[in-house]
Recover the amino acids of this structure.
């Protein structure tokens, strides 16, 4: 039953990638920006959780909430300071700014806390639940449970509330949305806040399961989650979920059965193959360019 | 040969020779010490990378995030050739460039059909795949790196290759091919409607850019003497992209200036090592916010600017 075990681990990792991919996809959907700083928000979320749990001795739920709020505020500040002044400039300029932001957060954090990895506190007891032949770690279960809950919450926000309606309208056509009386600036801020909150929580969840954090922990998960968003069709929320879970499964299974060192190459190859077959991702909309 | 004898080309040639003679004597006589001459070589290599990436990103309008992958191919191929078969360096450099451009052809044919960001993402993915493959090849030193490469990239060699790159790419841009390439950047669909074979020209500029990236990689490997796959990751590609955007997309002189500044700046800030890593991205963000089109926009730096300024002053006087 080792395969089933790996499958569950893959699903748990995939659910974290899905949380991150949601942030990428929502931001891309609304302002067409590949937000390279997103992986760094995940890292800072983990650090906020670290300080909340070790310095202030908080338990699991308050830690999660604090890191969620902290990352959301950070995301909004980044948007206001760095991206908003560039809304009408070429997209590549915005991309470079996002890269600059990513480097700034990474090195700023390194400057503040030092480059050495920090041990994470056990926020939930390390126990195992037996389901037939399969053992599930409580931390894995926490990852899956919290991610599922957040995804449901996001579905509710996006499809059932006015804020969600505004977000969907703005991602459809930002100018038309503003003509219809939607406050586009606020909508973009909300999108960043939600996406960053999800990334922050993802950071804490991963840090609980793999209890060592450092300022560079966000780069590779950020890149893989971004690949997940593209794989699912960037701009599409169900696509980000599918892509995230798929990337998590591929990564875990290749590490278990093929090769540890080639897992990144396999993830990227899958991306290329899918883009060549279906150029807008698995669930992406096909857009025809007009002159 | 006629072109070379033209007045402006002749002047440019004279200027290049003068710069070369000046820098070379300064290095030979030791006025510029070993450390700074090393930085000058690195600047020249980065200029090649920036100018070649500008051909794809700035002139063809295709965002490429895998330039370091082609650099890695050139670096490793030439290093293996000089290390294991004792091939002369020049030949190794050129073969490195050719193999990098073959890779570009292989990658470009399927992926250049994708539009916009999807192309950027596949190039990023290919760059990472090249890195992982090198990491897993023991023949190439694996993840721990390939050492013992003869350090042969000296100033004259790097300078000649840099000048050749700039001359060739600027001539391409001024030719009819160049106009076709620029038309793709301005509007791909309109260019297609006017009869430009956009796919062919995209491949063309991609392959040429990869060729020069390979050459830069080969120069780099014989400059540093030690290769590690980790130094060719996507951050390196992004670094090159920063040179291009900082200098202004579609401006070769902008790329040259920005590659020089941005290579020199981190070295100059080395004394405040901890803060350097913060100042650099901060400077980048601030510049992008206040000058989104880069230092020179899509204009070229030339003596005409000074002439225009002088004329304007005269106008005012009148």
């Amino acid at each position: 039953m080792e395969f089933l075990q790996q499958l569950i681990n893959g699903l748990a990792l995939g659910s974290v990638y899905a949380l991150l991919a949601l942030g990428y996809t929502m931001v891309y959907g609304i302002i067409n920006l590949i937000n390279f700083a997103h992986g760094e928000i995940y890292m800072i979320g983990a650090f906020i959780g670290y300080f909340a749990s070790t310095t202030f001795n908080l338990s699991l739920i308050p830690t999660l909430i604090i890191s969620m709020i902290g990352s959301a505020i950070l995301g909004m500040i980044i948007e206001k300071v760095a991206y908003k002044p560039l809304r009408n400039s070429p997209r590549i300029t915005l991309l470079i700014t996002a890269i600059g932001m990513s480097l700034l957060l990474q090195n700023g954090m390194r400057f503040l806390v030092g480059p050495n990895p920090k041990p994470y506190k056990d926020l939930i007891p390390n126990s195992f639940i037996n389901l037939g032949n399969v053992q599930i770690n409580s931390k894995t279960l926490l990852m899956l449970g919290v991610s599922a809950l957040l995804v449901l919450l996001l579905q509710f926000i996006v499809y059932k509330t006015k804020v969600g309606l505004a977000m969907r309208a703005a991602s459809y056509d930002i100018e038309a949305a503003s003509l219809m009386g939607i406050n586009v600036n606020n909508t973009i801020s909300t999108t960043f806040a939600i996406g960053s909150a999800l990334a922050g929580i993802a950071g804490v969840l991963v840090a609980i399961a793999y209890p060592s954090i450092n300022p560079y922990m966000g780069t590779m998960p950020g890149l893989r989650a971004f690949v997940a968003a593209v794989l699912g069709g960037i701009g599409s929320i169900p696509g980000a979920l599918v892509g995230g879970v798929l990337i998590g499964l591929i990564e875990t299974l290749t590490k278990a059965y093929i090769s540890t060192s080639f897992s990144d190459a396999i993830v990227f190859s899958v991306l290329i193959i899918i883009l060549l077959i279906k150029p807008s991702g698995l669930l992406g909309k096909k857009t025809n360019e007009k002159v | 040969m006629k072109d070379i004898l033209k007045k402006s080309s002749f002047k440019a040639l004279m200027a290049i020779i003068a710069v070369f003679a000046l820098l070379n004597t300064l290095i030979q006589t030791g006025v510029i010490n070993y450390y700074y001459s090393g930085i000058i070589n690195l600047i020249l290599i980065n200029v090649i990378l920036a100018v070649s990436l500008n051909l794809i990103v700035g002139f063809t309008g295709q965002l490429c995030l895998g330039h370091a992958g082609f650099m890695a191919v050139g670096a490793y191929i030439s290093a293996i050739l000089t290390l294991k078969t004792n091939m002369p360096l020049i030949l190794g450099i050129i073969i490195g460039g050719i193999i990098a451009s073959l890779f570009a052809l292989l990658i470009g044919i399927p992926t250049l059909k994708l539009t916009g960001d999807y192309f950027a993402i596949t190039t990023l993915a290919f760059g990472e795949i090249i890195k992982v493959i090198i990491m897993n090849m023991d023949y190439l030193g694996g993840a721990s790196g390939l050492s013992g490469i003869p350090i042969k990239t000296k100033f004259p060699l790097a300078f000649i290759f840099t000048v050749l790159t700039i001359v060739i790419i600027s001539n391409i841009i001024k030719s009819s091919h160049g106009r076709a390439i620029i038309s793709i950047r301005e509007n791909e669909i309109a260019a297609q409607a006017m009869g430009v074979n956009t796919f062919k020209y995209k491949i063309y500029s991609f392959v040429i850019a990869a060729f020069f990236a390979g050459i830069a990689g080969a120069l780099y490997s014989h400059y540093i003497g030690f290769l590690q796959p980790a130094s060719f990751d996507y951050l390196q590609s992004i670094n090159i992209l920063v040179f291009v955007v900082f200098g202004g997309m579609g401006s070769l002189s902008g790329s040259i200036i920005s590659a020089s500044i941005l290579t020199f700046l981190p070295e100059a800030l080395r004394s405040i090592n901890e803060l350097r890593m913060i100042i650099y991205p901060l400077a980048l963000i601030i510049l992008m916010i206040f000058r989104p089109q880069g230092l020179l926009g899509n204009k070229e730096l030339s003596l005409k600017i000074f002439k225009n300024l002088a004329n304007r002053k005269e106008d005012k006087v009148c």
